[in-house]
């Protein structure tokens, strides 16, 4: 059969990994695809010494690749938003299939890209956009296709998981662990996307669309970072039987879909509680199969390349199939942008339990006022722990609650912080039970 001719745009970490995997495993890849996958052209601003480009045309202009009439599939690995969007849309306009590892591109511009691809009858594959080498998109879109998905929860950013893991294991502060993660190359010089939950929200947006058949709606995702988590919180969670993780959570409810990224206390016996270091893991609850866990390397050159090349194999197998008979991009047919049949819930409507830590002046009546405020807002206390007074006669108070609506908790926190006897802001971390029983 005729070879599938591939153009790689970007020869950074993932681009180099993809190039090397395609070259090294060419024989096995051909056997799996039923035809050769040939690198026809590479676009890179500079040479990568890890890649032997002998005999392969190289250009500094990524748009040369999408305009090359010999290329069947464009692999977009340049990252970012606007240039990547322009590149992918032009590739689609030229009738080329697209493989991308760009979660930001899909989360923000995916609805537009998929409409254009459907009009041209081409494939857009993006397994590598979520959790690196873990085949969670294929599993969720195809392997779990018989299930009504109830919830998806994941550790989908290795940087945050590394920081929280070592804060707990080594008793160190957030700032110390962030500096170490940057020194080791796990965190960028500007770590905002990682530690504030934006990277995870991109990925969760994609997973939720595939799980529930809703349009991509990144702008409605709630994000909260981990920079305010202290070792005291980590240690207190441990003593209560929990571990703090930075989670992406999406749950189907009768009112709509939850879409949120934030720190959470989860019971130590839960599957996700035992995922440590830079590893990623996504747990999916289906009504038929129950809980399933997808675990592995969420980043890195060859783990991510594994997913990119798997997408290339799927494109090679399916490119001769009529568009109407291919697996839909987001698993469900007929997803329309702006369709609010299953809306994304505002954060005020979320119902969960809470951990709270506050510093109170050590005088009679303070705890009674705290309890009264919580009761007036319908917040039921599960446990209250008063610690030894610190310097300045401030008493740390730890409270855990039963299930409470977020709007009520926000008002309770506002009133607590307004009390003269409460020093500084109240720390609030949500508690997620992640019930693994169907």
From TrEMBL:
<comment type="pathway">
    <text>Amino-acid biosynthesis; L-threonine biosynthesis; L-threonine from L-aspartate: step 3/5.</text>
</comment>
<keyword id="KW-0521">NADP</keyword>
<dbReference type="Pfam" id="PF00742">
    <property type="entry name" value="Homoserine_dh"/>
</dbReference>
<keyword id="KW-0028">Amino-acid biosynthesis</keyword>
<dbReference type="GO" id="GO:0004412">
    <property type="term" value="F:homoserine dehydrogenase activity"/>
</dbReference>
<keyword id="KW-0791">Threonine biosynthesis</keyword>
<keyword id="KW-0560">Oxidoreductase</keyword>
<dbReference type="InterPro" id="IPR016204">
    <property type="entry name" value="HDH"/>
</dbReference>
<dbReference type="Pfam" id="PF03447">
    <property type="entry name" value="NAD_binding_3"/>
</dbReference>
<dbReference type="InterPro" id="IPR005106">
    <property type="entry name" value="Asp/hSer_DH_NAD-bd"/>
</dbReference>
<dbReference type="Pfam" id="PF01842">
    <property type="entry name" value="ACT"/>
</dbReference>
<dbReference type="InterPro" id="IPR036291">
    <property type="entry name" value="NAD(P)-bd_dom_sf"/>
</dbReference>
<comment type="similarity">
    <text>Belongs to the homoserine dehydrogenase family.</text>
</comment>
<feature type="domain" description="ACT">
    <location>
        <begin position="355"/>
        <end position="430"/>
    </location>
</feature>
<protein>
    <recommendedName>
        <fullName>Homoserine dehydrogenase</fullName>
        <ecNumber>1.1.1.3</ecNumber>
    </recommendedName>
</protein>
<comment type="pathway">
    <text>Amino-acid biosynthesis; L-methionine biosynthesis via de novo pathway; L-homoserine from L-aspartate: step 3/3.</text>
</comment>
<dbReference type="InterPro" id="IPR001342">
    <property type="entry name" value="HDH_cat"/>
</dbReference>
<dbReference type="InterPro" id="IPR019811">
    <property type="entry name" value="HDH_CS"/>
</dbReference>
<keyword id="KW-0486">Methionine biosynthesis</keyword>
<dbReference type="InterPro" id="IPR045865">
    <property type="entry name" value="ACT-like_dom_sf"/>
</dbReference>
<dbReference type="InterPro" id="IPR002912">
    <property type="entry name" value="ACT_dom"/>
</dbReference>
């Amino acid at each position: 059969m005729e070879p599938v001719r591939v153009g790689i745009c970007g020869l950074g970490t993932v681009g180099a990994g993809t190039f090397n995997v395609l070259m090294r495993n060419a024989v096995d890849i051909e056997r799996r695809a039923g035809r050769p996958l040939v690198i026809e052209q590479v676009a890179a601003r500079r040479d990568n010494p890890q890649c032997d480009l002998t005999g392969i045309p190289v250009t500094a202009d990524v748009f040369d690749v999408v305009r090359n009439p010999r290329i069947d599939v464009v692999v977009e690995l340049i990252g970012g938003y606007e240039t990547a969007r322009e590149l992918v849309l032009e590739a689609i306009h030229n009738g080329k299939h697209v493989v991308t590892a760009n979660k930001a591109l899909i989360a923000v511009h995916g609805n537009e890209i998929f409409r254009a691809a459907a009009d041209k009858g081409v494939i857009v594959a993006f397994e590598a956009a979520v959790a690196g080498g873990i085949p969670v998109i294929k599993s969720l879109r195809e392997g779990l296709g018989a299930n009504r998905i109830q919830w998806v929860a994941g550790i989908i950013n290795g940087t945050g998981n590394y920081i929280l893991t070592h804060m707990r294991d080594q008793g160190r502060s957030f700032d110390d662990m962030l500096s170490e993660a940057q020194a080791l190359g796990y965190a960028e010089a500007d770590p905002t996307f990682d530690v504030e939950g934006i990277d995870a929200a991109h990925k969760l947006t994609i997973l939720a669309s595939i799980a529930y058949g809703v349009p991509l709606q990144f702008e409605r995702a709630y994000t909260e970072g981990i920079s305010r988590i202290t070792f005291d919180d980590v240690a207190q969670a441990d003593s209560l039987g929990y571990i703090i993780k930075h989670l992406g959570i999406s749950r189907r409810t009768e009112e709509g879909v939850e879409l949120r990224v934030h720190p959470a206390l989860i019971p130590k016996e839960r599957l996700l509680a035992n995922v440590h270091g830079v590893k990623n893991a996504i747990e999916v609850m289906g009504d038929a199969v129950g809980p399933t866990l997808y675990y592995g390397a969420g980043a890195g050159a060859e783990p991510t390349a594994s997913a990119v090349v798997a997408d290339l194999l799927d494109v090679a197998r399916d490119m001769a199939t009529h568009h109407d008979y291919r697996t839909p991009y987001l698993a469900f047919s007929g997803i329309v942008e702006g369709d609010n049949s299953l809306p994304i819930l505002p954060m005020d409507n979320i119902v969960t339990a809470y951990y709270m830590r506050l510093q109170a002046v050590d005088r009679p009546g303070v705890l009674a006022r705290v309890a009264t405020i919580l009761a007036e807002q319908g917040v039921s206390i599960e446990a209250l722990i008063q610690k030894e007074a610190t310097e300045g006669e401030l008493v740390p108070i730890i409270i855990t609650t039963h299930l409470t609506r977020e709007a009520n908790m926000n008002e309770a926190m506002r009133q607590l912080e307004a009390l003269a006897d409460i020093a500084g802001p109240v720390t609030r971390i949500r508690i997620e039970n992640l019930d693994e029983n169907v």
